[in-house]
Amino acid sequence: MLIKTSPRRAPLHFSFPLLACILTAMLASCVKDGAEDKQANATASQAQPAFVAPQDVFERSAVSIVGISYPPGLERYPGLARLLVTHADARRAVLDNALKRNPQPAVPYELTLRFSTVADAPRMFAVVVDEEMYDGGMTSQPAHATFLWLPAEQRLMPPDEMIPNPAAWARLHEYIIDREREESAMLGGVAQAQAPAPAPTRAMQHVFNPRFNSAGRIAGLRFRVADGDEVEVPGALLKPLVAPTYADWFDDTPPAPAVAATATASL
Questions:
Q1: In this predicted model, what pLDDT tens digit does every residue of 15-51 receive, in sequence order?
Q2: Which residues, other chains included, contact 212 with Cβ-Cβ below 8 Å and sequence gap of 6+?
């Protein structure tokens, strides 16, 4: 029986010129891909400019005075720094609009913004801004705002996220009112302290100052009232009132003297 066999194919042979052409084409492709990657990286770098720390401002003219001061250390949190600048720009826009309505005020309009670092802990970096705005009228208008920055998440935290329950805020308000009554009674003398103290008339601005202890936990919140006084609420009372996520941030240990910085936030 005859067995047919298929003929063997001759091995492929490439000439040296052909191999050189193939290698050259492959090399050119690699160089092109590398150049495209570098271009893409350069474009991404241009989209995210290098951080530039906010600069203090002092401007004085016949119609306005503007003073803005920023705290050091913002290079660690560029996102927060941009928010502070945005806030300052918004307040300046208010002043500019007032000047458009009254281009020649009898008394120069004024805006003062003082940004201060009031808490620098692993859990929270907080900046408070104290503002004085005069855009006409009898007196200037003071205001306060706060920026509670979470370094681990690189984001701003609103106060209502920490204490989301309205009933919790109501309990805090009651505690503050009680402390103010006690203070009024003490200032009024022993005789008045024995009689029921009148309810305080000072309006609360609903701002609080977290105070961190040496363990990096919040030992208390100081609530600010309209006349600038503060009432401190201890951590033992606060812990059951805050959201469960933040309960372990609070501790009964008193704040350490070296960690007496505070942070302020609006209700």
A1: 555 555 555 556 555 545 555 555 655 554 455 567 8
A2: 119, 121, 124, 218, 219, 255, 259, 261
Which regions in the chain score pLDDT beneath 70? Answer: 1-49, 189-207, 226-228, 253-267
